[in-house]
Structures are given as C-alpha cells and as structure tokens.
Amino acid sequence: MRAHSSVDYDAIAHLYDSQPYRGKVADPELVTFMAQRAFAERPSILDIACGTGSQLVANCSIVPNARLVGLDRSFGMLRQARLKVRDIAWIQADGAMLPFQPESFDFITCQFGFHHVPDKAGMLRAVFQTLRCDGRFVMRNLCPQENPDWLYYDYFQEALAIDLADFWPPETIVATMEAIGFATVTVELEHLRFEQDLRVWLDTVRRRDTNSQLMAISDRAYEAGVHRLEREVADRAAPKVRADHLCLITIRGNKKDR
Ligand SMILES: C[S@@+](CC[C@H](N)C(=O)[O-])C[C@H]1O[C@@H](n2cnc3c(N)ncnc32)[C@H](O)[C@@H]1O
Fold first, then answer.
1. Which domains are present in the chain?
2. Cystine design at 255: which of 25, 71, 110, 131 (Cβ 3.0–4.6 Å)?
3. pLDDT value for 18
C-alpha cells in the first residue's frame, strides 16, 4: 500500500467546483480576526493550498482593501482561480516553500490542504516566519482520527489507512506549532452526524474524480467498495439509509511579540 496519497489536482481542476459542498462563504475565522485587530497598514491575507480560489473570492466582500494572495502547487487549480478574479495574486509554489519576505501577512489560512504537503513541519515553520507579529494562522481540515466510522472509510478501507498516514493527528500539529513559537494554539472539533441514502451516495462515489479519498486508493479497492455498495442497494432486505459521521477540525495559532 502507498504510504500517502497522490491526487492529481491538475487533472481534476476543471471538475473541482462542481461539487456543491465545495462552495465557500466569507471565512468566519477571518471575520473574527478582523474584528479583533486595528490595522495601521493594508491587511495582508494568504491562503495556502487555495485550490480554485473560492475562499479568497468569497472573502473579497469582507476585506475589500486587503492584499489577497492564493498559493497552490497545482497550476491547473490556479488557472481556475484566475478565471474567477484576476486581481488576486495567484502563486504556484509548495506550501512549505513560501516565496515571501518574513512578516508579510496578517492572516494565513490553509483549508483541506495540509495533509498533502510533504514537509508539514517545514510548512508550519514557513507560516510562522511569514506571519506578522499579532498575526494568526488558521488551519481547517478533515480529522480521520476522529471519524473512522465515516462511510467512505467503511466501504473503502484503504482510504482510512492512507488518510491516517497523511493527516497528522491534532496533538502532533499542536505540539509542532507550539515548539515553533505559536501562542494560544486552540483546537476545535466539529462532529457532523447525518443520514446517507445509499442509493444517492452510489451516484456520488461513481464520480471518483470528484473525491480525493477515492482517487488516492487503488483501482481494486475502489471497485470492491463500489460493488459492495451496488449489492446492498440491489438487496431488497438491506437498509438503504445509514448513519454517517464526519469530523472537521480547526486549529488556530497566533504570533506574538517575543
Ligand atoms: C482538497 S484541495 C483544497 C482546496 C481549497 N483550499 C478548498 O478548501 O477547496 C487541496 C489543494 O491542495 C493543493 N496542494 C497539494 N499539495 C500541495 C503542496 N505541497 N503545496 C501547496 N498546495 C498543495 C492541491 O493542488 C489542491 O488545490
């Protein structure tokens, strides 16, 4: 089994926004941060692994005067972002190799991308160096350690093994951030519990190219999971609705004067 996932975002960039759950509203974490700070100069905001740029585009209305920068490794994802708004700076780079002067940003976020960055400690160090004093870093992601009962992991068990290898546990992220110098590091878990209609979900999992868990697993594991689901949907005696559980994590850290 592969040690970690290899999702080709260039190949699926044109499909990425087709999933309704990928839509973004203005980031409530940024709203809170802006309300807590008075800015002597133009605020500066960076989104690492910004993908197709939807979060920065949604933020434009709440920080109309800010300098907005989106960074991603995938040129294809950035091409989609550029089609939305041209006067945001869209930069192709690795999340651990931030091509900015030290202390250039007030607010840095990374949403659903940290697990993809090979040098995670390096990225956290680069974020700390790139933040201005009194700045904040907010990471948001899935938390596979907290939801091994997610239906994706039940039907596609290889995905759980890959995610557990790719996603650092919360305590590792917190300990690394604190060792680097972040202050008041906080963790918030959001447990989403809902019902999944397997007949509807079957259509979703057949669109393998819209889900990074399904793209990361072997063809054999993917086909086995789909066949199991097809059998259950066809079996008149099998339940058609199952309880599902997803956990999202938000980790925040501030940079204070030393
Ligand atoms: C699941 S998408 C998240 C996109 C966006 N942040 C969102 O919330 O919709 C993950 C993104 O991470 C990017 N990515 C993967 N590895 C990266 C790396 N080493 N450095 C920067 N970005 C990376 C991918 O190209 C992709 O756009």
1. 9-254 (3.40.50.150)
2. 131
3. 87
